[in-house]
Write a structure and sequence with these properties.
- The protein is α+β, with helices and mostly antiparallel strands and 201 residues long.
- The protein is 19% helix and 27% strand.
- Helix 1 packs parallel to helix 2.
């Protein structure tokens, strides 16, 4: 069911999980604190949130940075032809790392297709990178205003994670995909349903 953080003091105890899907604007600092409190108390958070036309959702990504994962401003461009689809270097074909969430895709030799994604840098041992770009990838600082796929001054070298799983003490967990378009019907169809399978896993 739908739930607004704006008119509540806390996330209900009977919430099995909270899903944040393709937000176009940022949350407040108070909402950030509410989500962190929920996670500390054993809550589960599933997020699909990539870059927006206004840039990084700083407060929302602040939830992730609390647990050792930093978002890189901009949009990932993949420089390795085997790691992007349809001649569009922002439509990523990331490497799939072994985990309970991803092993079914690996076993069936499926690819996840991750379009318009934000780079994630993992700085903690309790974080598992589920999907990663190649060493030839980089983040275009211009974001949605980019006018070239070539690397320029100010762009950030990869590789990056584009999906992570974070285990938090007391049973809390975050699974985060850094693209808002992961479940778009077109891209899910291109992946033969692998994107939806990945999210359901």
């Amino acid at each position: 069911e739908s739930f607004s953080l704006l008119n509540s003091d806390e996330i209900p105890d009977d919430a099995d999980a909270v899903l944040i899907y393709a937000p176009q604007s940022d949350i407040s600092a108070e909402e950030t604190d509410m989500l962190i409190d929920y996670l500390v108390d054993g809550g589960k958070l599933l997020v699909m949130a990539g870059p927006t036309e206004d840039g990084t959702l700083m407060n929302l990504y602040g939830v992730l940075s609390t647990y050792g994962v930093e978002g890189t401003d901009g949009i990932i461009i993949e420089g390795d032809r085997e790691h992007y689809a349809f001649q569009q270097p922002y439509i990523l074909l990331p490497d799939i790392e072994s985990d309970d969430i991803t092993d079914p895709l690996i076993d069936e030799k499926y690819y996840a297709i991750v379009p318009i994604a934000q780079g994630l840098t993992v700085n903690a041992d309790y974080v598992t990178a589920l999907l990663t770009t190649s060493d030839n990838s980089f983040s275009k600082a211009a974001g949605y205003s980019l006018d070239t796929y070539e690397k320029e001054d100010g762009d950030t070298d990869g590789s990056f994670a584009v999906a992570v799983s974070v285990e938090i003490g007391s049973g809390g967990q975050i699974v985060w995909f850094s693209s808002s378009y992961l479940l778009d019907e077109m891209y899910n169809a291109y992946s033969s349903g692998a994107n939806l399978d990945l999210v359901m896993n």
